[in-house]
Amino acid sequence: MNADLAVLAGDGIGPAVVAEAVKTLDAVAGRFDHHFGYREAPMGGRAIDELGDPLPEETLELCRASDAVLMGAVGGPKWSDPTARVRPEQGLLRLRQELGLFANLRPVHVYPVLAEASPLRKELLEGVDLLVVRELTGGIYFGERREACEDDPMAYDTMAYHRDEVARIAHTAFRLAQARGRRVASVDKANVLASSRLWRQVVTEVASGYPDVKLEHVLVDAAAMRLIRQPTSFDVVVTANMFGDILTDEASVLGGSMGMLPSASVSTGQFGVYEPIHGSAPDIAGQGVANPLGTILSAAMLLRHSLGLEDEAEAVEAAVEGVLADGYRTADIAGRGEEAIGTEEMGDLVAARL
Known about the structure:
This protein has helices spanning about 15-30, 45-50, 55-65, 90-100, 120-125, 165-180, 195-205, 220-230, 240-250, 295-305, 310-325, 345-354; strands spanning about 1-10, 35-40, 70, 105-110, 130-135, 145, 155, 185-190, 215-220, 235-240, 260-265, 270-275. With about 350 residues, the chain is α/β, with parallel strands linked by helices. The chain has a domain at about 1-100 and about 260-354: Isopropylmalate Dehydrogenase (3-Layer(aba) Sandwich), CATH 3.40.718. Helix 1 (about 15-30) runs parallel beside helix 12. It is globular, with a radius of gyration of 20 Å. The model has no long low-confidence stretch (mean pLDDT about 95).
Protein backbone atom coordinates (compact mmCIF):
# COMPACT_ATOMS: atom_id res chain seq x y z
CA MET A 1 0.00 0.00 0.00
CA ASN A 2 1.03 3.58 -0.70
CA ALA A 3 -0.35 6.23 1.66
CA ASP A 4 0.23 9.97 2.03
CA LEU A 5 0.24 11.15 5.63
CA ALA A 6 0.18 14.71 6.93
CA VAL A 7 2.36 15.22 10.01
CA LEU A 8 1.52 18.10 12.36
CA ALA A 9 4.12 17.79 15.10
CA GLY A 10 2.65 20.55 17.28
CA ASP A 11 4.30 22.16 20.29
CA GLY A 12 6.23 21.16 23.40
CA ILE A 13 6.91 17.42 23.42
CA GLY A 14 4.83 17.00 20.24
CA PRO A 15 7.74 16.83 17.77
CA ALA A 16 9.61 14.30 19.94
CA VAL A 17 6.75 11.83 20.37
CA VAL A 18 5.50 12.22 16.79
CA ALA A 19 9.00 11.37 15.54
CA GLU A 20 8.80 8.02 17.37
CA ALA A 21 5.38 7.30 15.85
CA VAL A 22 6.81 7.99 12.38
CA LYS A 23 9.69 5.64 13.23
CA THR A 24 7.10 3.00 14.12
CA LEU A 25 5.22 3.51 10.86
CA ASP A 26 8.48 3.15 8.94
CA ALA A 27 9.10 -0.16 10.71
CA VAL A 28 5.59 -1.29 9.75
CA ALA A 29 6.20 -0.27 6.14
CA GLY A 30 9.42 -2.28 6.04
CA ARG A 31 7.89 -5.39 7.57
CA PHE A 32 4.68 -5.41 5.53
CA ASP A 33 5.98 -3.93 2.26
CA HIS A 34 4.10 -0.62 2.34
CA HIS A 35 5.19 2.90 1.48
CA PHE A 36 4.15 5.82 3.68
CA GLY A 37 4.95 9.33 2.50
CA TYR A 38 5.08 12.14 5.07
CA ARG A 39 4.51 15.84 4.57
CA GLU A 40 4.96 18.14 7.53
CA ALA A 41 3.18 21.41 8.30
CA PRO A 42 2.97 23.81 11.27
CA MET A 43 -0.02 23.99 13.57
CA GLY A 44 -0.71 25.46 17.00
CA GLY A 45 1.71 27.76 18.79
CA ARG A 46 4.48 27.20 16.27
CA ALA A 47 2.14 28.22 13.46
CA ILE A 48 1.15 31.36 15.36
CA ASP A 49 4.81 32.31 15.74
CA GLU A 50 5.66 31.61 12.11
CA LEU A 51 2.47 32.65 10.30
CA GLY A 52 0.18 34.35 12.81
CA ASP A 53 -2.47 31.63 12.44
CA PRO A 54 -2.83 28.42 14.54
CA LEU A 55 -4.20 26.60 11.48
CA PRO A 56 -2.76 28.13 8.28
CA GLU A 57 -4.73 27.50 5.11
CA GLU A 58 -1.78 25.60 3.64
CA THR A 59 -1.83 23.20 6.60
CA LEU A 60 -5.56 22.64 6.25
CA GLU A 61 -5.23 21.95 2.51
CA LEU A 62 -2.40 19.49 3.18
CA CYS A 63 -4.64 17.60 5.59
CA ARG A 64 -7.45 17.50 3.04
CA ALA A 65 -5.07 16.08 0.42
CA SER A 66 -3.76 13.33 2.72
CA ASP A 67 -5.04 9.86 3.59
CA ALA A 68 -4.71 10.59 7.32
CA VAL A 69 -3.12 13.03 9.76
CA LEU A 70 -0.67 12.23 12.57
CA MET A 71 -0.57 15.03 15.11
CA GLY A 72 1.10 16.09 18.34
CA ALA A 73 -0.39 18.26 21.09
CA VAL A 74 -0.55 22.02 20.65
CA GLY A 75 -0.25 24.96 23.04
CA GLY A 76 1.83 25.96 26.02
CA PRO A 77 2.40 28.83 28.49
CA LYS A 78 3.78 31.08 25.77
CA TRP A 79 0.35 31.21 24.10
CA SER A 80 -1.90 30.57 27.13
CA ASP A 81 -3.29 34.08 27.68
CA PRO A 82 -7.09 33.52 27.52
CA THR A 83 -7.61 37.10 26.37
CA ALA A 84 -5.30 36.70 23.36
CA ARG A 85 -6.94 37.17 19.98
CA VAL A 86 -5.24 34.08 18.53
CA ARG A 87 -4.66 30.89 20.54
CA PRO A 88 -3.42 27.39 19.57
CA GLU A 89 -6.65 25.71 20.66
CA GLN A 90 -8.57 27.71 18.05
CA GLY A 91 -6.64 25.86 15.36
CA LEU A 92 -7.54 22.50 16.86
CA LEU A 93 -11.25 23.29 17.04
CA ARG A 94 -11.25 24.67 13.50
CA LEU A 95 -9.41 21.60 12.18
CA ARG A 96 -12.08 19.31 13.61
CA GLN A 97 -14.89 21.44 12.24
CA GLU A 98 -13.40 21.99 8.76
CA LEU A 99 -12.66 18.28 8.29
CA GLY A 100 -15.99 17.11 9.72
CA LEU A 101 -14.33 15.09 12.48
CA PHE A 102 -17.40 14.60 14.65
CA ALA A 103 -16.32 11.43 16.50
CA ASN A 104 -13.35 11.16 18.84
CA LEU A 105 -12.44 7.58 19.74
CA ARG A 106 -10.43 7.17 22.93
CA PRO A 107 -9.64 3.58 23.94
CA VAL A 108 -8.58 2.90 27.52
CA HIS A 109 -6.72 -0.38 27.92
CA VAL A 110 -4.94 -1.29 31.13
CA TYR A 111 -1.80 -3.36 30.61
CA PRO A 112 -1.45 -5.83 33.51
CA VAL A 113 2.28 -5.08 33.81
CA LEU A 114 1.45 -1.41 34.46
CA ALA A 115 -1.02 -2.05 37.26
CA GLU A 116 1.46 -0.69 39.79
CA ALA A 117 1.60 2.63 37.91
CA SER A 118 -2.09 3.26 38.59
CA PRO A 119 -3.31 4.82 41.86
CA LEU A 120 -6.19 2.30 41.88
CA ARG A 121 -6.03 -1.10 43.54
CA LYS A 122 -4.88 -3.85 41.20
CA GLU A 123 -8.11 -5.84 41.51
CA LEU A 124 -10.13 -2.90 40.15
CA LEU A 125 -8.03 -2.80 36.98
CA GLU A 126 -8.24 -6.42 35.88
CA GLY A 127 -9.98 -6.61 32.50
CA VAL A 128 -10.36 -2.86 31.94
CA ASP A 129 -10.80 -2.32 28.19
CA LEU A 130 -13.22 0.46 27.32
CA LEU A 131 -13.76 2.89 24.46
CA VAL A 132 -15.01 6.43 24.91
CA VAL A 133 -16.79 7.85 21.85
CA ARG A 134 -16.79 11.62 22.32
CA GLU A 135 -18.88 13.95 20.15
CA LEU A 136 -16.33 16.41 18.83
CA THR A 137 -17.86 19.23 16.77
CA GLY A 138 -20.88 20.32 18.78
CA GLY A 139 -21.84 21.13 22.34
CA ILE A 140 -20.48 23.82 24.60
CA TYR A 141 -17.14 24.21 22.78
CA PHE A 142 -18.93 25.28 19.60
CA GLY A 143 -22.12 26.89 20.90
CA GLU A 144 -22.92 30.58 21.02
CA ARG A 145 -20.72 32.44 23.50
CA ARG A 146 -20.00 35.90 24.78
CA GLU A 147 -16.96 37.24 26.58
CA ALA A 148 -17.33 39.55 29.55
CA CYS A 149 -16.21 43.14 29.08
CA GLU A 150 -15.90 46.29 31.14
CA ASP A 151 -19.42 47.45 30.26
CA ASP A 152 -21.03 44.03 30.79
CA PRO A 153 -19.47 41.57 33.29
CA MET A 154 -21.63 38.66 32.06
CA ALA A 155 -20.05 35.85 30.00
CA TYR A 156 -21.68 32.67 28.76
CA ASP A 157 -21.13 29.53 26.68
CA THR A 158 -24.01 27.59 25.17
CA MET A 159 -24.30 23.79 25.14
CA ALA A 160 -26.37 23.26 22.01
CA TYR A 161 -27.06 20.03 20.09
CA HIS A 162 -29.14 19.24 17.03
CA ARG A 163 -30.80 15.83 17.02
CA ASP A 164 -28.87 14.92 13.85
CA GLU A 165 -25.55 15.55 15.63
CA VAL A 166 -26.59 13.24 18.43
CA ALA A 167 -27.88 10.55 16.07
CA ARG A 168 -24.67 10.30 14.04
CA ILE A 169 -22.42 9.94 17.10
CA ALA A 170 -24.84 7.41 18.57
CA HIS A 171 -24.76 5.32 15.38
CA THR A 172 -20.95 5.39 15.54
CA ALA A 173 -20.98 4.15 19.13
CA PHE A 174 -23.45 1.35 18.48
CA ARG A 175 -21.58 0.12 15.41
CA LEU A 176 -18.35 0.02 17.38
CA ALA A 177 -20.07 -1.78 20.26
CA GLN A 178 -21.25 -4.50 17.87
CA ALA A 179 -17.60 -5.39 17.28
CA ARG A 180 -16.78 -5.31 21.01
CA GLY A 181 -18.81 -6.24 24.09
CA ARG A 182 -22.20 -5.10 22.72
CA ARG A 183 -22.78 -2.64 25.56
CA VAL A 184 -23.20 1.14 25.28
CA ALA A 185 -23.35 3.56 28.21
CA SER A 186 -24.71 6.94 27.12
CA VAL A 187 -23.49 9.63 29.51
CA ASP A 188 -25.46 12.86 29.92
CA LYS A 189 -26.90 15.26 32.49
CA ALA A 190 -30.56 14.81 31.55
CA ASN A 191 -31.81 15.61 35.05
CA VAL A 192 -30.67 19.22 34.59
CA LEU A 193 -29.86 20.10 30.96
CA ALA A 194 -32.32 20.40 28.08
CA SER A 195 -29.60 19.47 25.59
CA SER A 196 -28.99 16.28 27.57
CA ARG A 197 -32.67 15.41 27.53
CA LEU A 198 -32.59 15.64 23.74
CA TRP A 199 -29.38 13.56 23.78
CA ARG A 200 -31.05 10.82 25.82
CA GLN A 201 -34.16 10.78 23.64
CA VAL A 202 -32.21 10.49 20.37
CA VAL A 203 -29.78 7.87 21.69
CA THR A 204 -32.75 5.77 22.82
CA GLU A 205 -34.30 6.06 19.35
CA VAL A 206 -31.05 5.04 17.66
CA ALA A 207 -30.67 2.08 20.03
CA SER A 208 -33.85 0.52 18.66
CA GLY A 209 -31.95 -0.18 15.43
CA TYR A 210 -29.31 -2.20 17.29
CA PRO A 211 -31.26 -4.85 19.23
CA ASP A 212 -28.07 -6.85 19.80
CA VAL A 213 -26.53 -4.00 21.85
CA LYS A 214 -27.54 -3.23 25.43
CA LEU A 215 -28.01 0.47 26.21
CA GLU A 216 -27.87 2.14 29.59
CA HIS A 217 -28.10 5.85 30.43
CA VAL A 218 -25.71 7.19 33.06
CA LEU A 219 -25.56 10.69 34.54
CA VAL A 220 -22.12 12.22 34.08
CA ASP A 221 -21.39 12.56 37.79
CA ALA A 222 -22.28 8.91 38.37
CA ALA A 223 -20.15 7.93 35.37
CA ALA A 224 -17.18 9.80 36.83
CA MET A 225 -17.53 7.83 40.05
CA ARG A 226 -18.01 4.48 38.27
CA LEU A 227 -14.86 5.01 36.18
CA ILE A 228 -12.89 4.81 39.40
CA ARG A 229 -14.93 2.33 41.41
CA GLN A 230 -16.12 -0.05 38.65
CA PRO A 231 -14.20 0.65 35.43
CA THR A 232 -14.86 -2.85 34.05
CA SER A 233 -18.60 -2.06 34.03
CA PHE A 234 -18.04 0.01 30.86
CA ASP A 235 -17.54 -1.22 27.30
CA VAL A 236 -18.41 1.66 24.92
CA VAL A 237 -19.18 5.07 26.44
CA VAL A 238 -20.78 7.71 24.21
CA THR A 239 -21.04 11.27 25.45
CA ALA A 240 -21.05 14.96 24.61
CA ASN A 241 -17.98 17.02 23.81
CA MET A 242 -17.12 18.53 27.20
CA PHE A 243 -18.15 15.47 29.21
CA GLY A 244 -15.95 13.27 27.03
CA ASP A 245 -13.02 15.66 27.36
CA ILE A 246 -13.18 15.48 31.15
CA LEU A 247 -13.98 11.77 31.55
CA THR A 248 -11.16 10.58 29.30
CA ASP A 249 -8.62 12.60 31.26
CA GLU A 250 -9.97 10.92 34.37
CA ALA A 251 -9.83 7.51 32.69
CA SER A 252 -6.17 8.02 31.84
CA VAL A 253 -5.21 7.33 35.45
CA LEU A 254 -6.52 3.78 35.08
CA GLY A 255 -3.59 2.94 32.82
CA GLY A 256 -1.12 4.85 34.96
CA SER A 257 -0.41 7.83 32.70
CA MET A 258 -1.95 10.10 30.10
CA GLY A 259 1.14 9.28 28.06
CA MET A 260 -0.32 5.84 27.31
CA LEU A 261 -3.62 6.88 25.75
CA PRO A 262 -4.15 7.29 21.97
CA SER A 263 -7.08 8.82 20.14
CA ALA A 264 -8.65 9.02 16.70
CA SER A 265 -10.87 11.82 15.40
CA VAL A 266 -12.93 10.49 12.51
CA SER A 267 -15.79 11.33 10.18
CA THR A 268 -18.15 9.12 8.19
CA GLY A 269 -15.41 7.89 5.86
CA GLN A 270 -11.93 6.52 6.50
CA PHE A 271 -10.10 9.82 6.92
CA GLY A 272 -9.01 10.69 10.43
CA VAL A 273 -6.67 12.71 12.65
CA TYR A 274 -4.64 10.70 15.15
CA GLU A 275 -3.02 12.08 18.29
CA PRO A 276 -2.31 11.18 21.93
CA ILE A 277 -4.73 12.63 24.46
CA HIS A 278 -2.00 14.26 26.54
CA GLY A 279 -0.97 17.89 26.27
CA SER A 280 2.22 19.49 25.01
CA ALA A 281 3.93 19.20 28.45
CA PRO A 282 6.29 22.16 27.92
CA ASP A 283 7.87 21.53 31.32
CA ILE A 284 9.64 18.43 29.95
CA ALA A 285 10.02 19.50 26.30
CA GLY A 286 13.53 19.00 24.96
CA GLN A 287 14.57 16.67 27.78
CA GLY A 288 14.02 13.40 25.90
CA VAL A 289 11.91 11.89 28.68
CA ALA A 290 8.35 12.07 27.27
CA ASN A 291 6.37 8.85 26.83
CA PRO A 292 5.83 8.24 23.07
CA LEU A 293 3.57 5.20 23.49
CA GLY A 294 0.28 7.14 23.32
CA THR A 295 1.40 8.59 19.99
CA ILE A 296 2.68 5.23 18.75
CA LEU A 297 -0.66 3.65 19.66
CA SER A 298 -2.39 6.52 17.84
CA ALA A 299 -0.39 5.47 14.77
CA ALA A 300 -1.81 1.97 15.25
CA MET A 301 -5.30 3.46 15.20
CA LEU A 302 -4.36 5.29 11.98
CA LEU A 303 -3.37 1.99 10.39
CA ARG A 304 -6.64 0.39 11.49
CA HIS A 305 -9.24 3.09 10.87
CA SER A 306 -7.90 5.11 7.93
CA LEU A 307 -5.77 2.59 6.02
CA GLY A 308 -7.70 -0.60 6.82
CA LEU A 309 -4.51 -2.39 7.92
CA GLU A 310 -5.73 -4.47 10.86
CA ASP A 311 -2.79 -6.91 10.97
CA GLU A 312 -0.35 -4.01 10.96
CA ALA A 313 -2.25 -2.21 13.75
CA GLU A 314 -2.25 -5.36 15.87
CA ALA A 315 1.49 -5.78 15.25
CA VAL A 316 2.16 -2.28 16.63
CA GLU A 317 -0.02 -2.92 19.68
CA ALA A 318 1.71 -6.27 20.28
CA ALA A 319 5.11 -4.58 20.00
CA VAL A 320 4.14 -2.00 22.63
CA GLU A 321 2.82 -4.71 24.94
CA GLY A 322 5.98 -6.76 24.42
CA VAL A 323 8.29 -3.87 25.26
CA LEU A 324 6.31 -3.17 28.42
CA ALA A 325 6.35 -6.87 29.34
CA ASP A 326 10.15 -6.79 29.03
CA GLY A 327 10.16 -4.18 31.79
CA TYR A 328 10.98 -1.02 29.87
CA ARG A 329 9.42 2.17 31.23
CA THR A 330 9.53 5.89 30.59
CA ALA A 331 9.60 8.12 33.68
CA ASP A 332 5.82 8.63 33.86
CA ILE A 333 5.10 4.89 34.22
CA ALA A 334 8.23 3.76 36.07
CA GLY A 335 7.57 2.31 39.50
CA ARG A 336 9.65 2.71 42.61
CA GLY A 337 13.12 1.40 41.96
CA GLU A 338 12.54 0.95 38.21
CA GLU A 339 15.00 2.57 35.83
CA ALA A 340 13.40 4.87 33.25
CA ILE A 341 14.40 5.08 29.60
CA GLY A 342 14.01 8.03 27.25
CA THR A 343 11.63 8.89 24.44
CA GLU A 344 13.92 7.84 21.60
CA GLU A 345 14.99 4.59 23.24
CA MET A 346 11.37 3.57 23.79
CA GLY A 347 10.61 4.26 20.13
CA ASP A 348 13.69 2.26 19.09
CA LEU A 349 12.54 -0.74 21.16
CA VAL A 350 9.05 -0.73 19.62
CA ALA A 351 10.46 -0.41 16.10
CA ALA A 352 12.96 -3.22 16.77
CA ARG A 353 10.17 -5.55 17.90
CA LEU A 354 8.31 -4.80 14.67
